[in-house]
């Protein structure tokens, strides 16, 4: 048995190095003796499958395509429904919960069971759902599916268990909320209207009970018919037939009059004493024309009529109603208070609004204090207590989509000082004029969990802006906003420039972000083929954006022998003059206009406020009438002072400390004679389509300007390995074709993109004994090149002496495009890249403490200490993952991740004090592999790739967390750590808190005597089965929800883990105790009955003699 194990160890060491017959470049098959076996490394892996579990944590942003709004005035909880079937529940900051209907049907209406911890949702599939909000993860308790009628409106009176449901046929049904069973009591449309009426009144658009008498129900039909239905007498009190269609109605709190909004932009007031005609009709925004007629207005979709104790005038709030002749006006919310009319313009169309009042009782003075306005892409709360009606500052991140999100980055366990610094800088640019009162949606409770660490999310946007968000403890708060477009000149009107041909709009759109939290250096890649490097400073700066120009000339004909030539490099000390390229807007011949960038950098002194300040701009130029394509890969290392960027044909390494280009080579030239495919470069064709082929660039000498901050690099064209503009219908097939592992096509081999870059302390050659600064380059053909560099260690020498970059031809090989490269030490711990500790370059000089560069993980001593051990390199491609031992370059482990799909995102992350490889595939699977052995630990079909937005924004981070843009306006955060899933209940906020329902006001004897008081009646007596009978079974079907016992049992095995199991056990125990209590009650009843009969028998036989029996 021991011999067999040794044979297996030998196979795992040598055989995985060359699967599939690929060329074994630098593999273990060539040098098996120099590589240690996995057993010799003795790396103890602690991660097991039990450590992983997929679970959604929290969703940020305004709900996408919202449809409905509701508010609990006692619990102070807000609910928002969406077209995709989602329900968002919001309370105080930190109380934020997202629920989803499995059907995905749009939410039509929401109704809170006020102060009961429950919510009713009406969906477009004609189903009612009852949600239990008394748990941190709400669940459906009951569902009721209507089979023959479509739901149009719902109304639930305060402190009632009977829900009124209006339908498209004009009928009104009544549902028992406790049992979710339909009552036999039905208000049929033909009984509500007069028999002489020949037309159908239309769908029910409004239901409300009278504040004066709960036994009276006001029913509004779309056609303009209004009916007051007497629930006790089962007949109508009055009918109103109005010429205009009704959209909504609202009562005065005394119940004597109500207001309706109509399709012609009018508001009608009705008095119950005389319902023959309205006693007042107003067109708030309709002016009287010369002929005496009112100008036509848009419909008023909703109106709310609220009274205030401090003012004799009521508040009338409505949306819509503007005149048609004012085209282009933004959507408005109008607030009428007495004779004053205030029109609030909104940025987006109004979906719904609610007036928040102090009391939940409809028969009391309402005392409105705020208006919640739900917009298509925003959420606004207006303060009604101040005359200028300011808005409240929104504590939720509802402006993520202010400009469309184009990329994301997620950083967990950041330096603790970075968040306060970013917040202090960003706070200086916050908007003012907000209401000074507390945020009114203040329900629920939330406390910061015990296991929290600083987290930052960075989002890049289509307008070139970058936002830093504090994501600590499942919250999200904006810290700082940076506008990259300020680096460039604004295009003049009528002169769009070359950027218009590259991008129809959004020429500043952010494509990639690279951020070093320790050095606070930020690097941004834009869609116009530009890279901007920023440094952080707490002080103002005035800088001149001068330019260092660099030509990369292209030869027309390239012979096969040219591939053996070594490239020429730019000389930092060169002073040979060269012509200045023309400005993007200069009138020059076409041959000269090719050598221009897409955007023009500002060439004057500009003030840079505290925060991130631009230091360097790199731009790619137009060549042969074609725009430069986007950059595919980027990496930055603050300790080295180097920046590397790649595209479909080449690689550029920039020394941003000396403002020089160190390396600018085509991808093919990086291999030299070590090209595994022995390819030859080809001469470009004359037509425009052929210019995307590979060319060998030669780099001319450059001259240096003072304060030079801008590079221009010619002909580094890119095509993204995962083309984000691919049609969604053919995404899988097109990606699969482009990622074929076959190398038979010379055309495909020569078009090789640089897909990933990674600076690290590594070994560039097998013979190296000490690790040196290296750049690892991964390509779209699955090849990895290692480029060693020689960097001066002295600070002064680093700024003066050149950095030497020398490609060695070292090649490693995998299947599919390379996505991620990471490094482990021989103990299996993650090796972090060297970095420079942050220093403020614009801070005043201190004579006693001169500012010097402080480098971490970058010194000769640390290299010598680790020289005898070597390290492990983890390389992941779209199909495969391999672990190599350096410097021998032996492949120790290999794992084929997928054959039918491909990996979109991969990262080496820290989880549970260990390290693993996390992957997200195009087929929706999320996988984790142990390191270094690449054992599968988790494989869950979580999220199908339905939108390229997910592929573009999905990213992993340490701590078992990940995020992606689930809609254009929302960020979804998930965890794949079982530990975090178990602690999620502690991290989430409580939606329901026990609060006593406020008591109704004592209205006094006289008001009650003269009919002003509300009359109460027993709805159970009217709607119960005893009085109304059973409803038809075919009308609606009751569906038990997952919030019951069975649903909790199913959830116990997954998301909620041991906590849910304990809760289930407790509930089952309670259920058994309840059954025992019922049996005990039955026994007591039986005993009382027996005692009663015994007593009666005793009385009957008391006077009888024994012989009379």
TrEMBL record:
Alphabetical UniProt keywords: Cell membrane, Coiled coil, Cytoplasm, Exocytosis, Membrane, Protein transport, Repeat, Transport, WD repeat
Signal sequence annotation: none
Membrane topology of this protein: Peripheral membrane protein
GO function terms (MF aspect): GTPase activator activity; myosin II binding; syntaxin binding
InterPro entries per UniProt: Lethal2_giant, LLGL2, V_SNARE_CC, WD40/YVTN_repeat-like_dom_sf, WD40_repeat_dom_sf, WD40_rpt
Keyword Cytoplasm: yes
Record carries keyword Phosphoprotein: no
Main location: membrane
Localization: Cell membrane; Cytoplasm
Composition skew (Low complexity), residue ranges: 12-33
A matching Pfam family: LLGL
Family from the record: Belongs to the WD repeat L(2)GL family.
Protein name per its UniProtKB record: Syntaxin-binding protein 5-like
Organism listed in the record: Cyprinus carpio carpio
């Amino acid at each position: 048995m021991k011999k067999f194990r040794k044979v297996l160890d030998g196979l795992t060491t040598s055989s995985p190095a060359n699967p599939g017959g690929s060329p074994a470049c630098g593999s273990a098959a060539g040098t098996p003796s120099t590589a240690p076996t996995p057993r010799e490394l003795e790396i103890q892996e602690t991660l097991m499958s039990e450590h992983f579990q997929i679970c959604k944590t929290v969703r940020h942003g305004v709900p996408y395509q919202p449809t409905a709004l509701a508010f609990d005035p006692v619990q102070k909880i807000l609910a928002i429904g969406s077209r995709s079937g989602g329900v968002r529940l919001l309370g105080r900051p930190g109380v934020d919960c997202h629920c989803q209907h499995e059907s995905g049907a749009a939410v039509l209406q929401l109704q809170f069971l006020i102060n009961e911890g429950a919510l009713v949702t009406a969906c477009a599939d004609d189903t009612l759902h009852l949600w239990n909000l008394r748990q941190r993860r709400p669940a459906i308790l009951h569902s009721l599916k209507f089979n023959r009628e479509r739901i149009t409106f719902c109304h639930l009176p305060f402190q009632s268990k009977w829900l009124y449901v209006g339908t498209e046929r004009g009928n009104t049904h009544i549902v028992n909320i406790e049992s979710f069973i339909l009552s036999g009591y039905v208000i049929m449309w033909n009984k509500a209207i007069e028999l002489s009426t020949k037309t159908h009144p239309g769908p029910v658009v409004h239901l409300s009970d009278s504040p004066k008498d709960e036994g009276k129900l006001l029913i509004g039909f779309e056609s303009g018919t209004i009916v007051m239905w007497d629930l006790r007498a089962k007949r109508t009190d009055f009918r109103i037939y109005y010429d205009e269609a009704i959209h909504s109605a609202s009562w005065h709190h005394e119940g004597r009059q109500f207001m309706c909004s109509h399709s012609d932009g009018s508001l009608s007031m009705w008095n119950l004493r005389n319902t023959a005609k309205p006693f007042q009709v107003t067109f708030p925004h309709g002016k009287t024309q010369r002929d005496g007629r009112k100008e036509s207005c848009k419909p008023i979709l909703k109106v709310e009529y609220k009274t205030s104790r401090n003012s004799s005038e009521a508040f009338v709030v409505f949306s819509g109603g503007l005149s048609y002749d004012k085209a282009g006006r933004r959507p408005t919310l109008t607030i009428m208070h007495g004779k004053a009319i205030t029109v609030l313009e909104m940025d987006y169309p109004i979906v719904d609004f609610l007036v928040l009042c102090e009391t939940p009782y409809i028969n009391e003075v309402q005392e409105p204090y705020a208006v919640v306005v739900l917009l298509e892409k925003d959420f606004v709360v207006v303060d009604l207590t101040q005359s200028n009606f300011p808005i409240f500052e929104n504590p939720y991140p509802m402006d993520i989509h202010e400009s469309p999100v184009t990329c994301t980055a997620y950083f967990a366990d950041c330096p603790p000082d970075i968040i306060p610094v970013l917040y202090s800088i960003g706070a200086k640019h916050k908007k003012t004029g907000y209401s000074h009162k507390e945020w009114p949606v203040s329900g629920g409770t939330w406390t910061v969990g015990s296991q929290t660490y600083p987290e930052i999310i960075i989002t890049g946007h289509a307008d070139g802006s970058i936002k830093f968000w504090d994501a600590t403890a499942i919250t999200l708060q904006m810290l700082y906003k940076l506008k990259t477009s300020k680096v460039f000149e604004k295009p003049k009107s009528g002169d769009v420039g070359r950027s218009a041909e590259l991008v129809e709009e959004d020429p500043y759109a952010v494509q990639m972000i690279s951020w070093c939290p320790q050095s606070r250096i930020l690097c941004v890649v834009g869609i116009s083929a530009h890279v901007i490097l920023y440094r952080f400073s707490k002080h103002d700066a005035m800088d001149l954006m001068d330019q260092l120009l660099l030509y990369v000339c292209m030869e027309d004909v390239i012979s096969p022998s040219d591939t053996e030539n070594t490239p020429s490099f730019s000389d930092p000390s060169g002073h040979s003059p060269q012509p200045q390229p023309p400005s993007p807007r200069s009138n020059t011949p076409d041959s000269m206009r090719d050598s221009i960038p897409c955007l023009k950098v500002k060439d004057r002194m500009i003030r840079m406020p505290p925060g991130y300040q631009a230091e360097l701009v790199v731009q790619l130029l137009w060549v042969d009438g074609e725009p430069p394509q986007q950059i595919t890969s980027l990496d930055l290392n603050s300790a080295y002072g180097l920046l590397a960027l790649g595209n479909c044909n080449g690689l550029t390494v920039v020394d941003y400390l000396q403002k020089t280009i160190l390396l600018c080579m085509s991808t093919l030239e990086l291999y030299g004679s070590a090209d595994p495919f022995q390819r030859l470069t080809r001469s470009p064709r004359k037509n425009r389509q052929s210019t995307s082929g590979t060319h060998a660039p030669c780099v001319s000498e450059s001259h240096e300007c003072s304060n030079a901050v801008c590079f221009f690099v010619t002909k580094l064209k890119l095509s993204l390995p995962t083309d984000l503009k691919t049609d969604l219908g053919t995404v899988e097939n097109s990606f699969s074709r482009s990622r074929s592992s076959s190398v038979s096509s010379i055309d495909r081999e020569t078009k090789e993109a640089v897909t990933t870059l990674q600076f690290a302390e590594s070994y560039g050659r097998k013979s190296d004994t000490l690790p040196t600064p290296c750049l690892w380059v991964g390509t779209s053909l699955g090849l990895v090149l290692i480029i060693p560099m020689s960097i001066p260690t002295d600070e002064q020498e680093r700024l003066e002496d050149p950095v030497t970059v020398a490609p060695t031809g070292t090649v490693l090989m995998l299947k599919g495009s390379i996505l991620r490269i990471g490094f482990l030490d021989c103990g299996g711990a993650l090796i972090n890249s060297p970095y420079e500790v942050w220093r403020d370059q614009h801070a005043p000089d201190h004579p006693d403490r001169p500012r010097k560069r402080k480098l971490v993980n970058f010194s000769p001593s640390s290299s010598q200490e680790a020289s005898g051990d070597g390290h492990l390199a983890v390389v992941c491609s779209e199909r495969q993952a391999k672990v190599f031992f350096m410097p021998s370059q032996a492949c120790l482990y290999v794992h084929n991740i997928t054959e039918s799909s491909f990996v979109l995102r991969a990262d080496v992350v820290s989880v549970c004090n260990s390290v693993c490889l996390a992957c997200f595939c195009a087929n929706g699977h999320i996988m984790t592999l142990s390191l270094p052995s690449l054992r599968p630990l988790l494989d869950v079909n979580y999220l199908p790739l339905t939108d390229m937005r997910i592929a573009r924004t999905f990213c992993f981070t340490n701590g078992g967390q990940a995020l992606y843009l689930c809609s254009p306006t929302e960020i979804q955060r998930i965890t794949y750590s079982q530990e975090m899933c178990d602690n999620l209940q502690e991290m989430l906020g409580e939606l329901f808190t026990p609060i006593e329902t406020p008591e109704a006001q004592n209205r006094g004897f006289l008001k009650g005597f003269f009919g002003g008081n509300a009359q109460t009646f027993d709805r159970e007596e009217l709607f119960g089965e005893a009085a109304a009978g059973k409803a038809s079974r075919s009308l609606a079907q009751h569906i038990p929800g997952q919030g019951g016992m069975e649903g909790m049992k199913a959830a116990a095995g997954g998301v909620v883990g041991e906590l849910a199991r304990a809760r289930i056990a407790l509930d089952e125990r309670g259920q058994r105790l309840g059954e025992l209590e019922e049996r005990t009650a039955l026994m007591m009843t039986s005993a009382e009955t027996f005692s009663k009969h015994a007593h009666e028998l005793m009385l009957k036989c008391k006077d009888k003699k024994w012989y009379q029996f």
